[in-house]
């Protein structure tokens, strides 16, 4: 019953979130949008996630139904995949209500950037170990 309530809350919050976010600037085909949106999560999560799209009028349209409790979308140019709790949190932020008292998970990964701004070298640098003693103090 609790999970049904959560699903209903998320479903009801999507139009509110959609209304608060601008529509995507350039219209891209659903197949391209789907591929980009699910790339925000690890492959194992993205392949089973639902995908929602914010339309020009602010409404939200389902591009693909999911089966793992995550919803991926692109909002304001940022791609993300949220679990039901994270969607509840987003709903609370948009509606200026108290956030739920539970942990949510939101993936915002990119193959080429971290936090949307810092390029990741390819291949990533190897961890380094610094050995030796610290310099002696002179004061």
What report would you give on this structure?
The protein is an alpha+beta fold. The chain has one domain (2-110). It contains 4 helices and 7 strands; from the N terminus they run H-H-H-E-E-E-E-H-E-E-E. Strand 3 (71-75) and strand 4 (78-82) form a beta hairpin. The model has no long low-confidence stretch (mean pLDDT 74).
Topology overview:
Layout lengths: L1 H19 L9 H9 L4 H4 L3 E5 L5 E5 L6 E5 L2 E5 L1 H12 L10 E2 L5 E2 L3 E2 L20
Parallel strand pairs: 1-3
Antiparallel strand pairs: 1-2, 3-4, 4-5, 6-7
Helix pairs in contact: 1-4
What labels describe this entry?
single chain; 139 residues; alpha+beta; five-stranded mixed beta sheet; two-stranded antiparallel sheet; 7 strands; 32% helix
What proportion strand? 15-25%
Task: Name the helix and strand elements from N-terminus to C-terminus, one letter apiece.
Answer: HHHEEEEHEEE
For the CA atoms, what is the radius of gyration? 19 Å
Structural class: alpha+beta
Task: Give me the number of helical elements.
Answer: 4
Oligomer: single chain
Straight-line N-to-C gap: 68 Å
Strand order of the largest sheet: 2-1-3-4-5
Low-confidence stretches: none
Helix content: 25-40%
